[in-house]
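Q: Convert this sequence to structure tokens.
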Amino acid sequence: MPLPLLPRRAAFVAVAVSLTLVFLASGSPIPLYNVFRVEDGLSNTDLAITTVVYLGATAASLLVLGRLSDRLGRRPMAVAAVLLALSGCAVLTQVHDPGTLMAGRLLQGVACGMASSSLGSYAVDLAPPRPPWLPALITSTVPPVAVPIGALGSGALATFGPAPRLAAFILLAVALLVCAALLLRCPETVPRSRGALAALVPRVAVPAAARRALPGVAAALLASWSVGGYYQAFGPGITADQLGTDSPLVIAVVFGSMVLLAPVGAAITGRLRPLPTMRFGALLFAVAIGVAMAALAAGAIVPFLVASFLGGAAQGASSAAGMRLLLPTAAPTERAGLLAAIFLISYASAAVPGFVAGQLAILFDPVQLGFGVAGLSGLAAVLCLLLARPTAR
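A:
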């Protein structure tokens, strides 16, 4: 006799927790980057390339697999994403060279891309009607915020727990296995339909009503995600070289400082009009990151962290506002494609500047590169002010 399906509200919780865990897992290796650098001889360039591999895999997964759950159903794609994240954790327990680290991050990147569209759409499908801003909060803030929370947990385990190179990956693998079992009991929200092979053809699917607003949202995403890629790639080295500590926990705090308050910013501004909120959030984020880079150059950790935390709240407000603009334009069978397009822009906004910064790391130090990324963020914020438009009616 088959097990009964979970009630809709319980299924929503299971899906939201699964989405969170996939991204928690993707943040777990980051505090160990400096351990790999010291114990295994990895260079700053190796770590920058690893970040690009992760971001590129995520973007490629979104481009190729992002619309598949609109055809095969949410549940099978959600389970596949969780199992890929589990596989990435397993590979990362064996890191002693750049290739193994990149392989683990590649698996995590593919998992995050699949989760962004399939689990994100699943959460929107199952979300309760109240509060109305909950789907936008989950889809806009879980991916960027769960990554640094995963880094904090991993950093704490590496600092205070046993088996610092293994503990976080093992715990997350067990939790992901439980989530996969729960997802198998969630009700399907999109029936299987024809067109799965056609859905694999790379195509950005944006509903017509959303296209007018998309350039402004894309500029806001570039402003924040370009800085996020920099923090991920260079945060461990900055913490060790500029701030004078190699503690995995402090590395995690530095990395997470930019996005940990994003849910707070999203929740506080959830009832405000999305268009001006997105504009103001993008501009405030760029200003905060400029202050953070100036503090970093001066070796002032407290102002650096304060400015980074403020930037995180501004990012949350801006990103959630962009989601509130775009999500209402998509029918249920268009949600995965729309979310895939949004996150494709997001990860490309981190991957391309991250790749350029990695190539320039032999010519410029991380602080100089940080000022370059802050300048890019400021330019993107100005573009957001100029390009932001309401959706078509």
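Residues 148 and 256 are 4 Å apart (CA to CA).
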